[in-house]
Each structure stands twice: as C-alpha cells, then as structure tokens.
Write a structure and sequence with these properties.
This protein is an alpha/beta fold. The chain has helices at about 35-55, 95-100, 120-135, 155-165, 175-185, 220-230, 240-250, 275-285, 300-305, 315-325, 335-345, 360-370, 370-405; strands spanning about 10, 15-25, 55-65, 80-85, 105, 140-145, 170, 190, 215-220, 255-260, 290, 310-315, 330. Strands 1, 2, 3, 4, 5, 6, 7 and 8 form an eight-stranded mixed beta sheet that branches. A five-stranded parallel beta sheet has the order 11-10-9-12-13, sandwiched between helices. Strand 7 (about 170), helix 5 and strand 8 (about 190) form a beta-alpha-beta unit. Helix 7 (about 240-250) packs parallel to helix 12. The N and C termini lie close together (about 5 Å).
Length: about 400
C-alpha cells in the first residue's frame, strides 16, 4: 500500500497472526493544557482502537498536534507523539515523515480550528498538515468537529479542496454540516457529535444530593481576559467578568450551596487563556468558595465534575463532561458551536451569546437551580441521541480500516 508495507504481523500467544495498522491522529494532543483537546484525543483513541480491533487489526497510533509547553505524559504503549511547529512542516520534515509511516489519518482539527476566524497563521497550520496527508496519498477522515465559518474566498477554496479530497467529513453540529456542504457539496459530509461524550471517567454521582448543593463554576480565562481587556471579540451582549462576579456573589449568599471553582484549560505561558489564574483570583475574592486544584487530565476532570449537583461552564468540554455524566449544566456560550452541539441533543438551557445582560444571565442560572430534575431528564434523552449520532462514525472507521487492510 502506498509503496510501503502498510502492515506487519503480530503473533499472539495462541499462535494466531494479527495484522497491525498504524493510524495517524492529526490535531490531537495528550499534553495540552486545554483539557478539551485531551478529552477529544482520549475519546477518539478509544473509538479508533475498538474499530480497528473489530476489523481484526491491532492498532498503533501516531499523534500529531501542536507543540506544547507542558511536559508530555507517559505514552501509551501503542502511541507516539510528533509535535507540530513550522520546522516540522518544512519539506521532508517531521510531519512529512510521520505521514509516510501511517496507513490513514483521522484529523479532529483540535475540535474547532478548521476555520479562518482564528487568523491566517492557525489556518495555515491546520490546512498544511491536511495537504501533507493528501500529498502522501493517505486516506484522510475529518473526525467530528466544528467546521467553519470560512470568510475569505481563498480560505474557502482551500477548505473545499481538502473536504473534497477527504474520505469522509464528520460535522459535530448541523451548522457545521451546512457550512461544509455549501463549500463542497460533492464531498461526503456526515452528521455526528463530539467524540468527548465517550471520555471514560470514575463515576462519583454518589456525592450528589446531600443537604448542601455542590455547584461547580468553570470560569473561562479566555472570556474573562477578553472582558477585562474590553475587546469583546466574541460579541457577547454582556460583560463576562461582571456576570461572573455577580453570579459568584449570588451563589455565595445561598447558605446551602458550596461553590467549586473549576479549571478546564490552563497555560503557564498564555495568561489570557488560563482558567487557573482566574480561579485563583476569584478564590481570593470569594473566600468561602472551594478552589479545586487543577486536574492532571481530562478523565480526572470529568470524574470530579460527575460528583457535582450543577455546573456552570464557559469551556465547552467541561459542559460535555457534565452532560455525559448526568450533571445538570448551564453552558455559557460564546460561539455557535455551543448552540449547534447542545441544540442537536435537544438541550436548551444555556446563557446565550446575545440578548441578555449581566443580571439576566445570573437569573437564568439561579432559575436552573430549581430545575435540575428537568435538566437531568433532558440530558438522559440527549445521551441516547449521542450513541446514534456516533454510530455512523464508528462504522466508517471500521470500513476504512478493513479496506486499508484488504489492500495489503
């Protein structure tokens, strides 16, 4: 296959020979300070690993993601990591070589980065890596992710070309699917849902329902810095920093509530995108709150969240952790990815991007306190929808892996 031996044999203890497939996981990461990217990676690893084994193959993985300042965790025995930077993208560089080692590529686009709204530099990184997979003639699947928006004609042309050359494109919400089909109507675009719903965790639901409510508040360092800096680049109709402080004041005044300040994205080098730094500040301002130590990984975060009675969160994957562990959640939206994802699951409890002021947003959260049973029921119904939305993705991976194997 592709001028190389795509598989080599592993001999099991029973004497049977099992072929090995090497799968590239593009724009994934095991050491990102943003636990959302880690959640995507661990969940997609689990899905791909099972699909390969269902196809009678033994999987190995090459994880390609942004070079991180945080130290890499101990590697899984069947994975290795290749960091992406400008040097890695040069002709004959690390990514070109890595693409030569793999049999197919699953690209998750860091969840929401296949767009031009983050600027030309990130767009170049995201698209050059995809083009290298195409140039290496590796089957490319765009795993469930937000797609678009694309604003410039040049950006649109490149994105359309990539989607037409992909084996399959999975959008994690209807708006993304529509954006993809508008640009590349002849590409194979399917509707799925965020794979992070499949992230494994330790269930701590036994901690819920005591005489004191455990209310988690995940304050987004990104939104907080944006509000304090006065840029409002996400177009919120309210001041996020003012809302956060008013919410914490309202919660702290309730005698039967314990407030847990939770971080879901941390960075030692980018203080404007560090939930932990903001949580430290707010813990000093609201000393009755519990400053939860930063988590060592996404599964640890989800495990802790599963023991809460309610979560209010500005990071989407913190919201997904709550939703998929049965914890009523109030997402604080800052883009269409929130409404697209949770709307797809029939869940409408959310602080919207526009149409509310700070007091309206606080009132919305406080009303949700009394509606936790209704929200939990809505999550239960949405969770059933998740499995059906991921079924096509699982089937596509099984089919792809089996087809790659047949070409040996």
């Amino acid at each position: 296959m592709h001028g190389r031996a795509a598989f080599f044999d592993e001999r099991h203890g029973d004497g049977q020979t099992v072929r090995t497939i090497t799968i590239g996981l593009l724009w994934h990461s095991l050491n990102s300070g943003n636990l959302g990217i880690g959640a995507l990676t661990l969940a997609n690893l689990a899905i791909a690993r099972k699909a390969a084994r269902d196809a009678g193959l033994s999987p190995r993985f090459v994880i390609m993601g942004a070079r991180e300042a945080e130290p890499a965790p101990p590697a899984f025995p069947d994975t290795r990591m290749v960091p992406i930077d400008w040097r890695a993208l040069t002709p004959g560089g690390a990514i070109w070589r890595a693409m030569g080692e793999v049999d197919c590529v699953l690209d998750i686009g860091a969840g929401d980065s296949f767009t031009d709204i983050y600027g030309p530099r990130r767009f170049a990184f995201l698209t050059l890596t995809k083009l290298l997979a195409i140039a290496r003639d590796r089957p490319l699947v765009l795993s469930p992710q937000t797609i678009g928006p694309f604003t410039g004609s040049g950006y649109k042309a490149v994105a359309a070309y990539i989607m037409r050359r992909s084996r399959a494109v999975f959008a994690r919400d209807e708006a993304s699917r529509a954006a993809a089909l508008t640009l590349a109507p002849d590409s194979d675009v399917k509707l799925a849902v965020d794979v992070a719903f499949e992230l494994p965790f330790v269930d701590r639901s036994s901690l819920r329902g005591s005489s004191r409510l455990r209310v988690g508040v995940n304050v987004s360092g990104l939104l907080f810095a944006d509000a304090e800096g006065g840029s409002n680049r996400f177009g919120l109709s309210y001041d996020y920093a003012v809302f956060t402080r008013r919410l914490l004041t309202a919660l702290s005044e309730q005698p039967a509530i314990d407030v847990h300040l939770i971080s879901h994205a941390t960075s030692a080098h980018i203080k404007t995108d560090d939930d932990g730094a903001v949580a430290d500040r707010l813990a000093r301002e609201f000393p009755t709150s519990v400053r939860v130590p930063d988590f060592t990984g996404p599964s640890e975060a989800k495990s802790y969240i599963s023991g809460l009675d309610l979560l209010v969160a500005g990071r989407m994957h913190a919201c997904i952790a709550a939703f998929s562990s049965g914890v009523p959640v109030i997402p604080v939206a800052y883009s269409r990815k929130f409404t697209g994802l949770f709307g797809l699951l029939g869940y409408d409890a959310m602080v919207p991007v526009t149409g509310v002021d700070e007091d309206d947003a606080v009132s919305l959260v406080m009303r949700a306190m009394a509606e936790r049973s209704r929200l939990a029921s809505a999550e239960e119904a949405g969770t059933a929808r998740v499995e059906s939305l991921l079924a096509d993705y699982r089937a596509t991976l099984r089919s792809l892996f089996a087809a790659v194997g047949d070409r040996v």
